[in-house]
Amino acid sequence: MLDSSNNTTERELDTLFIEACLQADPQVVQEYADDLRSLLTKSSITEQKSFLKSFVKRLDVDDMEVKVYYTIPMPPYNVAEETVGVLLFVHLG
User: Fold this and answer.
1) Distance between CA 30 and CA 17 in Å, rounded?
2) Hey, where are the domains in the chain?
3) Dihedral (CA of 17, 20, 22, 27) sign
4) Which pLDDT score is estimated for 22?
5) CB burial class (10 A; 0-12, 13-18, 19+) of residue 46?
6) Stated pTM of the model
7) pLDDT tens, position by position, for the chain (93 residues)?
């Protein structure tokens, strides 16, 4: 099946995914998964839905199986903490 959004076949995507998994450090993946789980557990249902929609690209559902096509939301490379603060909001009235 062809993914019309970027002209990449499912087979090519599967190959890229497998190659990425082979290069991933299991400890880093586990820590990241734990962080995502914690984020979703502490978020409201609206925040959870919005977050999941940001990386779930497609769902294929049939009688016996559901396929989820997604991209993994990755934190910035080698950044320990945010270095730019958020502007203050002041409500008047």
Assistant:
1) 17
2) 2-70
3) negative
4) 66
5) exposed
6) 0.44
7) 444 455 667 788 777 777 776 676 778 778 888 888 898 899 999 998 988 888 888 999 999 999 988 887 666 555 555 555 556 566 665
Give the total residue count for the chain.
93
Contact call for residues 57 and 71 (beta carbons, < 8 A): yes
Answer whether 68's CB lies under 8 Å from 56's CB: yes
| Phi, psi dihedrals of residue 11, rounded to the nearest 5° | -60, -45
Q: Which are the contacts of 40, defined by CB distance < 8 A and separation ≥ 6?
A: 48, 51
**What is the rounded CA–CA span in Å between residue 69 and residue 63?**
18
